[in-house]
Structures
1.
Amino acid sequence: MGKRFVLAITGATGSAFGMAVAKRLAASDHVDGLQLLLSPTGRRCLMDECHLSGEALAACSPKIQLLNERDLGAGISSGSHRHDGMAIVPCSAGTLGRIASGTSDNLICRAADVCLKERFPLVLCLRETPLNRIQLENMLRVHDAGAVVMPLMPGFYQHPDSLDDLFSTFATRVLDQLGIHEEDPRRWKG
């Protein structure tokens, strides 16, 4: 039986990274399902930056199910709903702050809160710079609670030929944090 994941795209620039993670998870033979969440600003960034709606992204694969981020009654809002982890790519500083404070005012933050309390993998790909003290403290708080803080900092050692190379290489790293280890010719060889 394959794994099931949750992916959220929030309102920080870098939605192409989230799109790359969604497509890589959906294409993986190790993944049976992906529940996709978009914050209102995440929807706008996806459209502005990738010219893609959330519905169009979900239509890329039958494995992807688009959820309403306001539906606090969805399965992923409960610890009894089993899945294999969650990534927020990109994760806005506001979303980080709500997760760090335990504020579950939408399904994205509630699902992240469930991951922390149930010890499911939670990967937060923060997209913000420069960072203020509050954001740094919030990063430490979620780290200490069990999340992986993985800022959107792509590597250049693989000599990317395109932006898609950067997005895909970063997606490989996110999948690694979720326990999906796939071959990627761009991995560091030493």
2.
Amino acid sequence: MGGVGGRRGVWGFVRGGMGAIPEAISASARASGAAIRTNAAVSKILVENGRAVGVVLAGTGEEIRARLVVSNLDPKVTFLKLLDRRDLPDEFTAHVERFRCEGTSCKINLALNGLPDFRCLPGCARPATSRHHAFVPQHRLRGTCLG
């Protein structure tokens, strides 16, 4: 589980939490004059003369022209769904199709003085060898427990 720098089983941690990454990127981009629009899904990346020149927004069809287009989507979505395959070399497209995209994971280690007794499932605590519990934080799903 996990990997850093091509090594499996290793964990890297972001100082300030994962939210620090987009905050740092957006602060740097704004300092360089970038305008950032949020809550605006992209349906297509515009390409002219072999170069990305903007995006088309989903729903409105609005075109936004740019000197630089950056995607935070995985390579398969970015290159195979947002771009016209005719704009990409066949060999590159074949590599992207074979690219293995791994999901994300979260690992939390807790030291407890007893078995958990969740408010949403009172009295459901069992020995860890017979039942695993997952807890979705209250601010996410109002204290929903999955057992």
3.
Amino acid sequence: MLYIVKRTQLYLDDDLWQALHTKAAIEKTTVSDLVRTAARKHYLDDSEKRQKALMGIVGIWKDRTDLPDTETYVRNLRKGTRLKRLGIL
């Protein structure tokens, strides 16, 4: 996958700056990498998991024979008397 990288600048409180530098030293990485990882985890992980879950259920009922035909079901719903009862028709 090709990523387009954008540069940004952050202003950090002293305590956060120190915590990130300490963590980066312990993990032998950079503060930038810690921030990218945290942002990705916080803002992207849930949507990627949700996308995978949704894609996993696509077509899950396609082979079921115990369900009525979808087109017939929808057409029967549209033949209802709701609009007439509400005085719209």
